[in-house]
Amino acid sequence: MALVKKISLLFIALTLQPVFPQNNTAQLLEMKSNLNTIKTNKFEILQSRNNRTKKKTGLAILYSLLLPGMGELYADNYSLGQYFTITDAATWGVVAGYSIYGNNKEDDYKAYAKTYAGVNLNNKDSKYFATIGAYENINEYNTEKELYRQFDETYEVEKYNWNWQNNTQRKEYRALWKSSEAAYNNVRFAVGALIVNRIVSAIVAARSVSAYNKREENNVTWNINFSTQQIPTLPSGLVLNIRKRF
Q1: Three-class SS state of 35
Q2: Which of 172, 230, 212, 239 shows the shortest CA–CA distance to 11?
Q3: Residue 129: CB partners within 8 Å, gap ≥ 6?
Q4: Domain of residue 230, residue span
Q5: For 190-242, what is each residue's pLDDT tens digit?
Q6: What's the predicted TM-score (pTM) here?
Q7: Is 194 inside a domain boundary?
Q8: Same domain flag for 135 and 164
Q9: pLDDT at 30 over 80
Q10: Pairing state of beta strands 39-48 and 237-245?
């Protein structure tokens, strides 16, 4: 404000110079004493302000965790963030594709087991379907468990019975089961990739916010305007106000 007042006083003095001689010190002192009664009408002709506020790191991280790349977009760095968004979309496509494929193969091996091994599909867990692909029938399985004294792992015949007609059928079932499990494993890896993508995007977004805020702190703001000032004992003058903010 002191700089503005000095510039204003200087401009008033230059404006009134033709009216008052250079040696008229008394009148200049009187003009200075009446500055408190100045009436100002401002006419702004140029204003360049930086109305942007600082970005919040926590908000950028939250955006990236919800949708990778959005934190970078928030920090004005989507040129990099777009790759996180594209990766996320592609990975979701992988998740959907392998999930559908795994479900189809699961339906196939269960139907195959019901048709060729006489399996009752009700209330059977994933361990059971893995087991029946390794043994031709329930008796072979129970005999092995009893041999190793693992009696708690044997199956009740009436409820869990299966019996492949030949070893070829068992192997075909096993191949269907492996295909389904491989697809589900790929889904798990894809989900892990989604998580990693979000973490990396959040880190980059936080750094982008820091860089954005530093740039904003270094920005210079200018505010230039003209105004007319009326002093009770003097003619009207034209004042140029210049403000500079770093």
Answers
A1: helix
A2: 239
A3: 109, 110, 113, 177
A4: 2-50+219-245
A5: 999 999 999 999 999 999 999 999 998 877 555 555 555 555 554 555 555 55
A6: 0.67
A7: yes
A8: yes
A9: no
A10: unpaired
